[in-house]
Specification:
Helix content is 71%, strand content 0%. With 390 residues, it is mainly alpha-helical.
Length: 390
Amino acid sequence: MSPERPVVGDRFRRFRERLATPRPDLPAQRQADERADVDVPPSRRTHGDRTSQPPENAARRTRRGRRGGGEELRVPEAEFTSYYGRPILKAPVWKWDIAAYLFTGGLAAGSSLLAAGGQLTRRPVLRRAGRVTALGAVSASAVFLIRDLGRPERFHHMLRVAKLTSPMSVGTWILTAFGPAAGLAAIAETAGWLPRRGLLGVVGRALPPAGHAAGLVAAATAPALATYTGVLLADTAVPSWHEAYPELPVIFAGSALASGAGVGLLAAPPAQAGPARRMAVAGAALELYGAHRVETRLGLLSEPYRAGRSGRLLRVGRLLTVAGVAGALLGRRSRAVGAVSGAALLGASVATRFGIFYGGVASARDPRYTVVPQRERVNGRRSVVDPATD
């Protein structure tokens, strides 16, 4: 006869006694978990996965905490992340050459306005410096733009259509109109070096009036050249650029005037630098006003303009602008002070353009600057619609 099998209740009782006995080879936490599993009725146990706990035990362990601190576990604050750690928006692929393009375009516009002022007030030094600088700056702009496009023929292809709703298309036509006019005005400055007889003499006599007309055409298109880049940046989905659409054209217009004034202060003697000083005051006022607005009006989206590399550049630009205007006004009789003031204004224009550029790039890389403003806009629309619906 087979030996009598122990009753199930006896086996279970011996099993509980064995669990009650301390086992030095197992951690105390695991022994406590096993005893808690045994205390739960069989109908409520979780089979298969030893790490899962019944609802009562899980709640008790949650309240107790794994380290015995007794504090309540809290859900961590949400982080603004996206799938695979990638940003929500694709950051601009533009690099430093586009930021340099922003500066050279403004410099060309401001210099052409300076040249027109020197032409109309009969200040040949200002006229000559403005025309030559405008041609050099617009040529550098074309180099930077073609370098970003990759192939020169792409610029030509953009001239096949004229689309008023596209800032890039409008900007291409502005450069096409400004470039030849600025070039002809600058070439006209060489008329005095040509012989007075023969075919070159005829060309030398025709260049000054043609240069005057071309200089006025370049000055007429200069405001559009100075501000269209601000519209171009604001037309993108980059948060800190898009929301600053009222201020960017103002900043770029002021920066263009300040850079043109810097050229005049560097090139002209104090007796002929009056228009340059007035341009410096007007440009600094517009630039400082616009920069202050983008750093304070946009709420969360103003942070990229105050922090990091962008914040440092904009602060440097503000200091250089104030120093340049102060030197231009206080050093009216000193050629050296005027030259230093002009260099400060040029440096301020560079710092401001690069600061605006890097601020937008930083806002596109952080998902927070995309998600939070969108939620605020949605909540704002709901707060307007809900009372009407009620």
